[in-house]
Amino acid sequence: MSDLERYYSKSHEWAAFSSSTTAKIGITGYAQKQLGDLVFVNLPEPGSPVTAGKPFADVESVKAVSDVYSPVTGIVKTVNQDLLDHPEKINESAENAWFAEIEEITARDNLVDKAAYDAFVSTEKKE
């Protein structure tokens, strides 16, 4: 997936759009580093609705359980079943370990491009 079709939320999720109404969703490498090694992931059911800015999944690290927020509003088309058995794939490459593919997208949660996201992260690191 190229960066041209990938956008980021300030809650550290990414959305890679294959069309204007379909996208795969995951967490950023920055989020994964903040959470530590992930050992469990809980994904939504296909067919369930998701709302931009609201939790749609959660991940468990050795530190805590954390919500994953949907950067879009739509319907879960499919989930990455491989992550259920191998959550460590998120630790290995968060930018490639998608959680769910969302279709019928009707809204986006203030998504920004990679340059704007990187600038946001660099200011967050300084705080």
Strand content: 35-45%
The level of helicity is 10-25%
- The run of helices and strands is EEEHEEEEEHHEH
End-to-end Cα distance:
31 Å
Q: How many domain units?
A: 1
Q: Can you give the mean pLDDT?
A: 93
Q: What is the CATH homologous superfamily assignment?
A: RNA polymerase II/Efflux pump adaptor protein, barrel-sandwich hybrid domain
Which CATH architecture?
Beta Barrel
The largest sheet is: 6 strands, antiparallel
Please count the helical segments: 4
Number of strands: 9
User: In the CATH scheme, what's the topology name?
Assistant: OB fold (Dihydrolipoamide Acetyltransferase, E2P)
Q: Which structural class is indicated by helix and strand composition? A: alpha+beta
User: What is the level 1 CATH name?
Assistant: Mainly Beta
Physical arrangement of strands within the biggest beta sheet: 1-2-3-9-8-5
Global geometry:
globular
Q: Mind telling me the C-alpha Rg?
A: 13 Å
Taking pLDDT < 50 over at least 5 consecutive residues as the criterion, the unreliable ranges are none
